[in-house]
Amino acid sequence: MSDPDCLFCKIVSGDIPAAFVYQDDDIVAFRDIHPVAPTHVLVIPRKHVASLAEAGPEDEVLLGRLMLGVRRVAMDLGLVAQGYRTILNTGSGAGQSIFHLHAHLLSGRRFSWP
Fold this sequence. Notes:
The protein is of the alpha+beta class.
């Protein structure tokens, strides 16, 4: 299931190129074109889900795959020892600008809170 107007759906379909670092049947991961850290990867489900707020019970397994995908990418990129931050922005008020569920995987610098 995809949205023909969604930027990330177009990346998943191959209509827009991206620097993929991981792919499987459920998720893809690619480097952010506007990184805010030395390592900034977006991990997204292939299925279009607008945000975490839009996910339903039928997406339970997919949400788990998304988080395990973040873990896999962090391991593959050698980020576990230095640490990494995972962010899910939900809604425009929280900074979500592309309405396709995605996790930001950030590493390579110190982060402050919040």
